[in-house]
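Module 6 notes. Inverse folding takes a fixed backbone as the condition and produces residue identities as the prediction. Think of it as a translation problem where the source language is geometry and the target language is the twenty amino acids. Below is one complete input and output pair. Work through it position by position during the lab.
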């Protein structure tokens, strides 16, 4: 009888010990699960933050590249307008060769020029008109230069027309320095007068002998701004 009671108490103690051990193990597992969940949430938050930061950085980079591309297109358009004397939005053969000489110290050969016109005409709608390059054709040509890794060709054109690395007109281009001896004065030569007369007549679209505000804006479209409106 005593032996059975002792055996029952032992069994009870063993059972209680096992229950406590199981309870302790369950509590430890719960703690570890909570800790693991917290670590997972922290890691997930860090990944989300990194992703959001990367997305913001990528957007900012894209915006800068887009703004730079738009600025470069504008300056290329300005360069074309500076080449085209009659402002009819296309460069005739003689004007293209003159621009090539200005930028690269050598005019294009007629065969090379014909090859350029043929390529632009095949791939750019409206890129060629009356044997010359339109604005669309001019931009397409430089797109091809860039795609083929000839970035320096485009930059050479921009620099020759007074644009710096930030696509702004350089001070040396806007205000070229020249020395005037103390006993001398500066005045326009006859070719200088003719140059300004030609410019005036080109932009005086209504031929009323005066440049209205819209005509003035067009005159200074290739410059940093209209001096009469920026004062």
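Target side of the pair, the amino acids:
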């Amino acid at each position: 009888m005593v032996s059975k009671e002792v055996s029952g108490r032992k069994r009870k103690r063993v059972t209680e010990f096992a229950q406590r051990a199981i309870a302790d193990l369950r509590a430890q597992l719960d703690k570890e699960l909570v800790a693991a969940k917290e670590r997972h949430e922290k890691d997930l938050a860090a990944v989300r933050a990194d992703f959001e930061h990367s997305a913001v950085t990528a957007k900012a980079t894209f915006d800068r590249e887009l703004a730079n591309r738009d600025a470069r297109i504008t300056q290329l358009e300005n360069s074309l307008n500076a080449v085209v004397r009659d402002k009819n939005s296309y460069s005739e053969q003689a004007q293209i060769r003159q621009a090539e000489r200005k930028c690269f110290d050598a005019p294009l050969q007629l065969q090379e020029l014909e090859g350029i016109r043929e390529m632009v005409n095949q791939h750019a709608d409206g890129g060629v008109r009356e044997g010359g390059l339109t604005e669309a054709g001019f931009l397409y040509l430089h797109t091809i230069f860039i795609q083929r890794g000839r970035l320096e060709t485009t930059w050479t054109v921009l620099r020759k027309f007074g644009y710096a690395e930030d696509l702004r007109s350089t001070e040396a281009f806007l205000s070229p320095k020249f020395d005037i001896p103390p006993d001398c004065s500066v005045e326009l030569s006859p070719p200088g007068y003719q140059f300004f007369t030609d410019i005036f007549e080109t932009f005086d679209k209504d031929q009323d002998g005066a440049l209205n505000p819209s005509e003035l804006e067009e005159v200074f479209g290739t410059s940093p701004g209209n001096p009469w409106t920026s004062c």
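Reference fact for the lab report: The chain has three domains: 10-56, 66-169, 178-224.
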